[in-house]
Amino acid sequence: MPCTKCKDDKYKWGKTGECEYATKEACESANHKYNKMQPTPLGKKSYEEYEKELKEYNLSKVERVELAGIKELEEYEFELSKGIDELMQFATDAREAIAKGVRELTRLDAVKKVATRILGDTQEAAKELGVKVPQIEKLERMIKAYEQQKKSLTKVLK
Asked: 30-46 burial by CB neighbour count: b if 16+ within 10 A, else e?
C-alpha cells in the first residue's frame, strides 16, 4: 500500500492509517516491511515485475471475443425450446384424447351390453315367428365392427 497525503500535509499508510508522518519518506521507511510483502497475482514474480508486465503487455485492455458457433447454439436452443413446448402441447392433447376415448369406450360397452341382450331376445322371437329382420343382421355387423375397433384401440393404448 502506498503512503498518501492527508489534508493537514501529513502522510498516512494506506487508506485506514493515521495521519502521523511528517514526510512521505518517513511514512515509507516506517512501513518498508509492507512493501516487500505485497502479494503477487502470478505467485513467482515480484510485484515490480508484475507491474512492468502489465504495462508492457497492456493486460488491462478488454476486448470482446465471440465464438463462431454462439449464434448457432442460440438458434438450436430456441428451436429445441419451441419443440419442447409443442411436444408438451401434443402430450396434453393426447392425454385429453385418450381420456375422451376411454369415456366413449365405457359408454359404448354399456350400449353394446343392452343391445346384445335385446338382440338375443329379438333373434329368438324372430326365429319362433319364422321372419327375417334386417335390423338384426345390421346390429350384429355393428357389434362386430365395434369389437374390432375396441381391440385395435386397446392395442394402441397399451
From this structure: ebeeeeeeeeeeeeeee
Taking a C-beta distance cutoff of 8 angstroms, is the pair 46, 40 a contact? yes
Cα distances from 39 to residues 26, 29, 42, 83, 123, in angstroms, run 23, 19, 9, 52, 104
Nearest Cα neighbor of 139 from 121, 105, 112 is 112
Whole-model pTM? 0.47
Q: Which domain holds residue 36?
A: 3-57
* Lowest-confidence pick of 6-10, 104-108, 110-114: 6-10
Q: How far apart are CA 68 and CA 79, in angstroms?
A: 19
44 and 92 share one domain: no
**How far is CA 110 from each of CA 11, 68, 142, rounded to the nearest angstrom?**
100, 64, 14
User: Three cell numbers at 120?
Assistant: 338375443
